[in-house]
Hints:
Blueprint: H1 2-9, H2 24-35, E1 55-56, H3 58-61, E2 69-83, E3 89-96, E4 101-106, H4 108-114, E5 124-133, E6 136-146
Parallel strand pairs: 1-2, 4-6
Antiparallel strand pairs: 2-3, 2-5, 3-4, 5-6
Amino acid sequence: EEERTALVRGGDENRAPALPPPLPARALAWEIEHLEIAVERHPLELYRAALPSDVVAASEVADAATGARLRTAGVAIASRHERTKGGETMVFLTLEDEGGIVETTLFPRAYRRWGHALCDAGPFLVDGTVERHHGVATLTVERLERVRAPLSASGARRPGRPRPAAQE
């Protein structure tokens, strides 16, 4: 009788158990999976501490000297595959970090070598040379690699489900 009364009164038996908040990587993965966009934080924030110290912000590429070799990182927000006159594939890839975007170009040789990594939005670590086209700085990619998943609080690798880069 006491149990029935507790159920009718809305006793503790009807409460869902309190759950701890998700780890940042898990929350980000859920946002991207369900909303197709990161809302609370930029995806690169979770990887920032693991990036090499010589990585420059996307916004700094525009100020770099033509011909400068540098390294940057970002998530792919757009990509366009093109064919050269010789029929080879090259890719124009737009990367975004927390503060800006950088346009990159993978010419056929770089695409053959590193293009396999472009199966999703990344994030990517890119080494390249600054070029200028019509006054706009771009980065000609010499090396591209996918940044590994960030560590969770427990030290385990946390997989995410980033949104694939747009194909224009």
